[in-house]
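Support request, please re-run this one:
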Amino acid sequence: MFPCLPLTPAALFWWEHTRYPPGMLHYFKFRQDLADPVPAKEIYVKRGAGKGWPEECPPIRAANAFGFDLLANFDVTFTQHRGQWRVEDDLIIASDFNYAGSDNSEGSPLNQQYAWFWEKGQKLPHVITDNVYKEISNQAKVSSFLFLKTDPNELLLMTDMPNLHRPWRSMTALIDTDWYPASYPWHTVIELDRSEKRITIKKGEPLCRVIPVRRDTYFAGEMSPEGFDQFFARGQQWLATHGKFEHEGTVDITRTYVKQQIKSKFVVMR
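Re-run finished. Output below.
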């Protein structure tokens, strides 16, 4: 038993951050046989022989591996005919839990569509006028089948997969998952390449990247001349200490950069 003492702000901060570490993403699956978020990977494209592929660059590898991936739970195919997109074999699944509107009801499973488009002339959840619909008719929504939550003052940046080129892309959004208690699984909005006639997203393929970020005030400011002098001198000293001089004007820092690089870690706790 712990004594019942009032918590100081410092103790409260310690308690909250030992229960839930900073950058914590909480999720619940619409159905337990569906995909969990997975930690991002450094490499997504299997390359052939040769040197100089983008994934060999340490900062690119670090960006590739920064965040969690939300995966496609099923195969889905989008086809375009005369400028109109549709979903082949549309899918609606039921949850493996029941929802009841009151304590006196046994409730029933919830239903969730996998992929759908904006509707022409729609009024809810927001109005789309016909001229706008024409521009966004190649956008579809794909469900992650995940209820998502973050801790106070932590948001969820949902974006496309970095450095991965596909005939569709996930649009970037910053979601207030710390205060908005969405009672539905979150979806990602994808934009389909209009030059394609048929696009398939395979089960297990990453739909989008999600990154917990802090709600805060961020600043940018120009260095003073003195500050820049110190910065530049420090850089030259670092190169002289850690760089390998191949010939005049060229310094190899690749191996040293990798050794000194400190990467963030993303872990799914089960």
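The chain has five helices and 17 strands. The mean pLDDT is 90.
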